[in-house]
Every structure is written in structure tokens, then in C-alpha cells.
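User: Show me an example of a complex going from sequences to C-alpha cells.

Assistant: Sure. Here are the input components:
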Amino acid sequence: MGLSAGLGIKPAQFTLATAEHADGLWFEVHPENYFADGGPRVRCLDSLRAAHPLSLHGVGLSLGSVGRPARAHLERLHQLCTRLEPVLVSEHLAWSRWDDRSVPDLLPVPRTQEALDCVSRNIAIVQETLGRTIALENPSHYLTLAFDEMSELDFLTELVRRTGCGLLVDVSNVFVSANNLGFDPADWLAAVPATAIHEIHLAGHSEDPLLGGQLLIDSHDHAVDARVWSLFEGLIARIGSRPTLIERDEHIPDFVTLMAERNRAAMILEQAIVAPSRQRASA
Amino acid sequence: MKLHAYQRDFMAALWHDVVVGPLAALSAQPGFAVYRNTVMKGCVDALEANYPAVTALVGRDWLRAAAAGFVSESPPTQASLLDYGAGFADFLARFPPAAELPWLASVAQLDRDWTESHLAPDASTVDPVSLVATSPATLAGLCLRPHPASRWRWSADIPAFSLWSISRGLAPQPENGFASLPWRGEGALTTRDADRVETTAIPRAACAMLDACAAGETFSAAAAAALTLDPAIDLPTLISSLLRTGALTTDDPHFTKDHTR
């Protein structure tokens, strides 16, 4: 069968992940965590890859930079793609590099015509280097940028049109952004073009320690929130099944607990396959 | 606002509390702190992960406070933080709160050696069996080089290897604390063989021999360097221990095994 629900995974759980069997199971890693010249760090992915489909989800390519993607970074990514033949490759609509500085975060891209040109150019460079299309993820938002010229959905849709890239819809990021910036996440998810969606992400968030629920943080340190599950079900009812990933980066529970959360997503996807017409009719 | 100016000013605003100019209002939004916190946390997490022996010795809070100082001084230059933290040992050596911990920088250096060895390129290692069957003349002229994953150092006056091994849980805690350790210089060799990074104690003569190999000297010149440093050294034992740990490589395929290490 095709890809159902997958799990973001770290080396500490590779042995359990490799041995796990579930229909449609796949795993996702951040390629930057395997940028080694040689040795066990890069080889540890080989047995996981031999057992399951693998997705590479980049966090540091900085597609939103005014400059081109860093050559050395892109070369490393290319090498990993050649070695692992990932089933999916994705990155974020964000930037993290300026001059010779790089930060471990996903900084907001102002939605201007100039930025649209830069991101389109950078996606095209990456897709040409890798010889494949990538999926672009909507990041979490914490700021209102006064100089935005268009909506996030218009920006993403135009990038898809210009570059042929896909979208990675992070439902949790939509929920967090909607809370922080004051829009309806269901409206956003109802309007995102279904045919462009290659992958979906679900993750837990937390409240800002000072501001509480006013400011939610995409912290990946909790189980997926009930309201996010509900938005996910609505999206799947509209668009049908898509490869869906549970992300967890902090306070990582045992593998069985992670798989239980993954299985919940898999069941929702399964229902969309079994009864697509009824679900779409009711959506 | 042009993208170039926006990104330049945004990047600067991440590292400064007071922001003037076009991004002053943006950086005053409560959400801006999320970016500042995430950036700092990511860098400090990476340093904590890369310096486990130092963390065990000084505690998490102390380490994270020191790491924040290092991050402000030497922010990352690439997206992957696997290799982040070169220079942290030097930073600790001149970090005022570490003045009372003169051994800390030497332990940090061994943590760094481990990271560098872990991520180094692959190369074959010298096959000891092939050397046994070689004539003394050929052997003397052979150039053996340190494997790309080999790191070695001599810590004068500080039992850095013992402190590091105990802190990483690789050696038992001394019954009467660190003060009961014999306080003298120690050598440490970090190697990677069969995908396992390992650090072993080596005598100072072995450091001299590895230095000579790294400088491109022949096997006989490297052996002479070891003997000059310590005329009493047991040379065959020293050489066989270097070969056993996979510390050496050579371009000549007659003398190597396993090309994936």
C-alpha cells in the first residue's frame, strides 16, 4: 500500500523503528542531523531506510533568503538524497541564513513580490539540483509583518504555480498561527488547494510561559491537541488521504506511545480511503 | 522594505535587545521573543549535546549559562549544528567563572575530539598483519598517516583523560573524589574503528609519533621521534596499540583493510 501515517524519528529510536511493522508506515528525519563526512552518523540511516520508506524534511536550506541556497548545504542534501532515495523531500517557507550567519529557527518571510521572486528562484535551484520536486511547509507565525502584500495562501499557491513544488500542510502550524494572528484555521484549511498537498504534519504545541494561550508556540513537545485532530479530520474529509506525519522533538515519549498517536492518524486516513465519497459529501 | 535590509536587520535584532530603525516596532511585538528564545535554545542545546563530560562536571545550569556566552560570541555559521562548538574549550579557558576550574578546558577539548572523530570522513585503516610480512627496509620507509577520525593530545599537568572518562561514565568514580586522582599529565587518543568512537590513554611518546606521522615523516622517523621523547618506551607495544585502535591509515592498498571505516 502507499504511504499512510509516519513518525518523525531520532537515532535513539532507530532500532525500534526499523523493527516495527505497520501498513503504510514511514519515517521522517531532518537531513541536517546527518550532515557528516563519514562514519556512523550517516550510516545509521541505512538500515532504517532498508526497512521503511524515508522522508527528508529540511530545516536549514533557507529558501526565503534573499541569496541563493548555500552551495555546501545543497550538496550535502543532494548526497543524502542519492544515498537514501527518500520517498518525500520537503522544506519550509522560511529563512534562517544571512551573510555567514545561520540560526536554528524558521524566520518569517515577508510576503512581497520581491520575496516571491527569491523563493521561486531558490525552490527552482533546489529542485533542479535534486532532480525532483519538493514540498513546501507553511511555518508557524508569531508576528504581524506590516509590509506583507498578499495572504499566505496566495503566496504559497503562486509558488506552486511558478515552480511546480508541492505543499506540506502543517495543520498544527495553521492552528498556532491562527491563534497568534487572529484568523480562523478552518477557513485557511478549506481554501488550500487540495491537488498541491503532498504531505501533512501534526505536532503538539505549548503556551508561552508569560502570555499563556494568547501566544502559542510550535514546540513539538506535547501530543497533538484535540482541536488540531479535529481540523485534520476536516481536511482529510475534503481532500482524501495524504501521507501524514506525527512530529515530536522534545519530551519524546517511548516508541509505543508515539506509534499509538501515529496509528490514530492512520485510522483517520484509512476511513477516508474506505468511504471517500460519503465523507466528501458530508464535508 | 527591501528583503536584503529586512533580513540584515532581523538577524541583528535576534542578537540585540534594543532595536532601532525600521524593525523597532516588529521586534517590540511579543512574538519576536519566540524567535530570540528558539535561536538561543537551539544553539545551547547543541553545545550541551556536544559537551557531555563538561556538562557532567559543572552541571546543566552552569553549562547552559556558559554556552549562552559562547553562542553570543560565536553564533553558528551553518544550518547543521552537529559540528557546532569548535572553540568552546578555548572560550572556557578564558571564561572568568571557570577560573577556579583549570582542568575544564582540557576536558572540553576531549569532548570536541569525540565529536570531530564521530563526523570525520571514512578511510581504510592499516592492517597490522600486512606489516608483519614486510621487510624491515620497506617498513622503515613507509609513510603511515593518522586516520581522518584520529585525534590525539597531551594534557600537561592535568589528568584530562581520567576526568573525561569518569565524567562520561566510562570509568568508575574515584572513591574519594577527583582530588584523589594522581594529578599528572595524561595523553588521550580518540579513534573510530568499526563505527565506534573510542578514546584511550596513550603515553606522550605516542603523541610524538602521531605528530610525526601527521607531518608526513616515514615510519622510521616517526619511531625515532617517539624514542627521542622517551628512550625507555616499548616501541613494539606502542605501535601495535596504535594499529589496534585504527589510528593510522596509508594510501598504499597493500597495507590497509576495510575501506569503509
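The lines above are the inputs; the final block is the predicted structure for all two components together. The longest helix of chain B spans residues 32-50.
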